[in-house]
Amino acid sequence: MRLLVPLLCLLATAHAHPLIQNSMWIVFAPDRVRVAVNVSQREILVAQQVGAEITVAPDAATQKHGDYLVQHLVLNALAQPLTGRVEKITPPVLFGGDPEQTFYQYELDYALPPGPPPTSVTFTHTMLSEWPYAPGQSWDVMYIARLKRSDQADVSTGLLRANSPQDFATGWTAPAAKERTKRPAWIYAAAALAAIACLIAARLRSRRSSPPAQ
Asked: What Å distances lie between residue 93 and 43, 74, 115, 153, 156, CA to CA?
């Protein structure tokens, strides 16, 4: 019996863990970054501080959570923070299951600065950082990301963890620097000879115009 109680406590702790793992899809267009994020009902309930007895997120909470995502998923490109907005919220197909396995999908849009697209974008998230899982223990929210350039089919993967800025390559290349047109060497030589000739001619004119010595 003495061994049974600690074992039951251990199993309960292992089941109620603070880890939340979500999926994220990222598409890099020339003028914007599109992000689709899967968010479990459990995460919405915690972030919006809905009562623990409620297992289905109210509509008001799911709508408000879109603003929460934009505030806590920060993108930087070309040394500038990007402004995000919620484009669409897709609810789960079925309700009533495990809140940790029932997902909403939020589609976010981040406009890029004018000019050529960046070669990388820095992602940082702080989801649930303000709400402890338990005294002295924080939630651990991570995202498995799939990334692609908007005009290509190739998909890469990445991992985004809380409070750990991550640079993701966009697939776009830096514009080639414009090379200055090089002039042939003979042009510089001719210019130097012309300058010497002008100098000699100026000295000869100066001597001819000078009065004879008394």
From this structure: 18, 29, 40, 27, 27
The kind and range of the H/E element at 27 are strand 19-28
How far apart CA 81 and CA 184 sit, in angstroms, is: 46
pLDDT tens track of the chain, all 214 residues? 444 444 334 334 444 568 889 999 999 999 999 999 999 988 998 999 886 656 567 788 999 999 999 999 999 999 999 999 999 999 988 776 777 788 999 999 999 999 999 999 999 999 999 988 888 888 999 999 999 999 999 999 999 999 999 999 999 998 765 555 566 776 777 777 777 877 777 777 766 665 555 5
123 burial level (CB within 10 Å; 0-12, 13-18, 19+): buried
Distances (CA, A) of 186 to 112, 158, 189: 47, 55, 5
| Alpha-carbon 63 to chain mean position | 23
